[in-house]
Amino acid sequence: MLEGNRVSRISVRGFAVASATAVTAVGSVVGVASGSTAQTTDDAEAVANDTTLLADIPVGQQAQVQTASLTAQADAQAIAADATARKDAEETARKKAAEDAIAKQKQAEKAEQERKAKAEAETKAQAASSLDDAPTQTSYSIAEIQAMAKAVVASDQWTCFSNIVNHESTWNYKAVNPSSGAYGLFQALPGSKMSSAGSDWQTNPATQIKWGLNYMESRYGSPCEAWSFWQANHWY
Q: How much is the pLDDT for 63?
């Protein structure tokens, strides 16, 4: 067995070497996580400069020092692994939360679109019913015909709808084109095609309005789309 004081001195120095190695390893890990390794490296070098090199330690002491060093390195690696695992878990949680938020937003938008579509369908059904219930008269003024139309045409489509009727017939539900035979508010050609909306198509502007609105929506998508086509071609 070595002399007590010498053993104690070398053991302390040996552990200092292990500590310096551990500080360097831990410092590297912590430094990478924090973005700065300069101070940790300087501290490790300062400690190392004040200790005995492993080669200077008696063989019997080296195994103990190496074991301590490896243990310190293993601890440092475990700390780094835990930090990486936490970071990955946090990133996964953030992505999941973002995906859930997007999915909920899409569901809400879909629900809103379905609600609007349902409301629009109900409005159209009520509007068609109001035309069916319109009292039959022997004649109708322009104001009365326009009131019927406003009851069924969406407010944001009214101007376009009105523009087409103005250009086609100036709101005369009995207007006839002398050269082509086109008839009514929308100058349907032939006029008899409006019979799909009612047998009284020649005398009832409500029937003509029902047919004309359906024609614009089914052929062009809306009165405004029909008006855009009319402006480009002067027919629709």
A: 76
Contact 233, 163 (CB under 8 A): no
Rounded distance between C-alpha atoms, residue 83 and residue 92, angstroms:
14
Q: Decide if 187 contacts 175 (C-beta within 8 A).
A: yes
Q: Three-state SS for 98?
A: helix
> 3-class SS at 149?
helix
The predicted structure's pLDDT at residue 162: 98
Other beta carbons within 10 Å of 131? 21
- Cβ(151)–Cβ(214) under 8 Å? no
Instruction: Give the CA distances from residue 12 to residues 52, 55, 57, 65, 79, in Å, rounded to whole numbers and listed in that order.
Output: 9, 15, 11, 10, 26
Q: Which residues of 180-219 are buried (b: 16+ CB within 10 A; e: fewer)?
A: eebbbbbbbeebeebeebbeebbbbbbbbbbbbbebbbee
R_g (Cα) of the chain, nearest Å: 44
Tokens found for residue 114: 């379905």
Pair 219, 226: CB distance under 8 Å: yes
| pLDDT at residue 123, as a whole number | 66
> How far apart are alpha carbons 15 and 66 in whole angstroms?
9
- 149 closest CA partner among 138, 139, 163, 137: 163
What confidence score (pLDDT) does residue 32 get? 42
Structure tokens at 180: 């082509």
Point out the residues of the chain with pLDDT beneath 50.
Answer: 1-38, 40, 47-48
- Output the 3-class SS for 69-97: HHHHHHHHHHHHHHHHHHHHHHHHHHHHH
